[in-house]
Amino acid sequence: MTENTTAELTAATVEQIAAENFNKWNAALQTRDAKQVAAIYSEDSTFLPTMSGEFKKGRPGAEEYFHHFLEKFPSGEVINGAAQILSPTSYLHSGLYNFTVGPEDKREVVQARFTYAWSKDEQGNWLIRHHHSSVKPQ
Q1: Which of the four pLDDT bands, split at 50, 70 and 90, describes residue 36?
Q2: Mean pLDDT of 83-112
Q3: Distance CA 75, CA 94 (A)
Q4: Distance between CA atoms of 133 and 18, rounded to whole angstroms?
Q5: Position 96 pLDDT exceeds 90
Q6: Is the CB of residue 121 less than 8 Å from the CB of residue 42?
Q7: Which residues have CB under 8 Å from 53's CB, separation 6+?
Q8: Which is nearest to 22 in space by CA: 106, 136, 131?
Q9: H/E stretch holding 130
């Protein structure tokens, strides 16, 4: 993950950083540890999850959701995405992704759309400030 605290985002770097941060988030899903996934969200984050109608706030809300979602053994893949610079230390990443979920013998693909707002904290770590994901309409 890129953690340079002084470098500003540029059009040339934001797509790479967005891909790295998504991969970091997806790798956290693979740990099956809700606390580890929630640690990527800022303390004051907001979250509209893919498979829940609830509005989650902060790390406790993210952890609560992921505790149940991780039971589905999810693995995500961005199908089509774009990143937009919001400030020198924040960006928006949105697009379409697929989640493969379910037990090994019965995996299925859930098509969804996403928006992540990422920003750096005081230590220069990228955290999710807002995450909205919903099943893709057919």
Answers
A1: very high
A2: 96
A3: 17
A4: 16
A5: yes
A6: yes
A7: none
A8: 131
A9: strand 126-135
